[in-house]
Design brief:
about 450 residues, mainly alpha, two-stranded antiparallel ribbon, 18 helices, 6 strands, SusD-like_2, Starch-binding associating with outer membrane, TPR-like_helical_dom_sf
Length: about 450
């Protein structure tokens, strides 16, 4: 957490005294409300989600799993697994100083104003923020976090506790969304970029997130995690609303798609990885022109892992530089179902979900390719071989999403050869940020990025 400059504090106090002298008895300006409205807070909270789930955190994950490759600037360091405690401070601050602070305020205000739909939105968004934070850092502050000046040194919770807190937040959100409109003094609408205030869509998103974090525990509880994930997916399937939850962007310069903005501002820093490009070519996968752009020679070519040379290679495709990016999708739900069913030795359900996941992933791009599904949509071999097929196709489908790094850590699939220019193994976490290490005595300090987080440890 940031320390406050005494100089700035003193300057602020002087300014406050001057203002007090000037306004005399007029203590509160009618043009400066003390609290943001629920309709104002909601998009601010959602923008934090968009920044966290589509910015540097996902760029680094995409390099770790060899969807992309760092070919210039600081991205070469990330591609070589060189993550310093100061490199990642902005990501931590976006989650906490912006996201958690505002979602806590949204939940608090919505509860006070008897607006459970707004409260439910805040709880889902907060669960997503805690989810990505614990996936990257392990133990994190939750209960005491986001309180501003009230607590600049929040205590950390063990990851096992955080996962349960995420589940509890999502369960509470589902209860909020089950209330009737008449029980809501205020209703969300267009200011909710993600679902336009639709409680059914939000409820479905919450169930899928519960399945995601139940499945996250596959190393810790093979059978129980599968049972819970499948039960949550059944609850989601009973809701007619769409699975799709997206990050939404505009072209006004203030909320540009981060993949687009990064490529525009740091051209050549990130290129397509040869690992994924060559995989798509080898499969005759019709998603290749959507995933990547052609290079200056009008061909698709990925950068070999460890080759730091900008300009020659393909970059992220225009489809992923548009006005939306996927956050929670139907294909993810189907891949989770396939994997969880396989853990329960239910081969029939695993097969049905797996082939449906491939079809759904193709349909995202308007592709209907019966030949591709026929060639790659049937599970075969041993249980381990079937699991490898599921995770391989999920690795392809989850392009640009941080979830793919979590999947690789859980399963070791697909098998990835580490960057030969790196002096360490593929990261399994982020180290503690320098601010937390220096200023928070309660921080769980980890410096080694190859140490697994709790759910990743055997």
């Amino acid at each position: 957490m940031k320390k406050i400059s005494l100089f700035l504090l003193a300057a602020g106090l002087i300014g406050m005294q001057s203002c007090n002298d000037f306004v005399s008895k007029d203590d509160i300006s009618p043009n400066t409300p003390t609290h943001a409205t629920l309709a104002t807070l909601t998009p601010v909270c959602e923008l934090s989600i968009f920044a966290v789930y589509t910015g540097q955190l996902t760029r680094s994950a995409s390099m770790f799993v060899q969807h992309t490759e760092g070919t210039d600037g600081q991205m070469v360091d990330f591609a070589r697994y060189q993550i310093s405690e100061s490199d990642i401070t902005n990501d931590w601050n976006t989650i906490y100083s912006s996201g958690i602070v505002n979602t806590k305020q949204l939940i608090l205000d919505a509860t006070a104003q008897k607006a459970p739909y707004y409260a439910g939105i805040g709880k889902v968004l907060q669960a997503m923020l805690y989810g990505v934070a614990t996936d990257y850092w392990g133990d994190i502050p939750t209960t005491e976090a986001g309180l501003g000046l009230e607590n600049l040194q929040p205590k950390y919770e063990k990851q096992e506790v955080v996962i349960q807190q995420i589940q509890d937040l999502l369960s509470d959100a589902i209860k909020d969304f089950k209330t009737s409109e008449d029980e809501n003094a205020l209703l969300p609408g267009g200011e909710d970029y993600m679902h336009k205030g639709d409680p059914e869509a939000w409820k479905k998103a919450a169930w899928l997130l519960k399945a995601r974090y139940a499945n996250r525990l596959s190393k810790k509880d093979k059978v129980g995690s599968a049972t819970n994930a499948l039960a949550y997916l059944d609850s989601a399937a009973a809701i007619s609303a769409t699975y799709e939850t997206k990050a939404i962007f505009s072209e006004d310069g203030n909320s540009l798609n981060p993949w687009y903005a990064f490529d525009e501002n740091r051209t050549g820093y990130i290129s397509a990885s040869a690992t994924l490009v060559d995989t798509l070519k080898g499969l005759s996968d019709p998603r290749l022109p959507f995933y990547f752009s052609k290079n200056k020679d009008d061909v698709y070519i990925g950068a070999p892992v460890g080759i730091a040379k900008a300009g020659k290679y393909s970059t992220v495709g225009d489809f992923y530089k548009g006005n939306s990016l996927p956050l929670i999708t139907e294909e993810e739900a189907l891949f989770i179902e396939a994997e969880a069913a396989l853990r329960q030795n239910d081969d029939a359900t695993a097969q049905s979900a797996y082939s449906s996941a491939i079809v759904t992933a193709l349909n995202r791009f308007g592709i209907s390719d019966a030949a591709y599904v026929a060639a790659h949509g049937t599970l075969s071999g041993t249980t381990d071989e079937k699991k490898a097929q599921i995770m391989f196709q999920k690795w392809i489908a989850m392009y640009t999403q941080p979830e793919v790094w979590a999947d690789w850590r859980r399963t070791g699939l697909p098998a990835i050869t580490p960057n030969p220019k790196a002096d360490k193994a593929i990261p399994r976490r982020y180290p503690t940020t320098v601010d937390e290490r220096v200023y928070n005595p309660y921080a769980t300090v980890v410096s080694n990025s190859t140490d697994p987080v709790w759910w990743d440890a055997q």
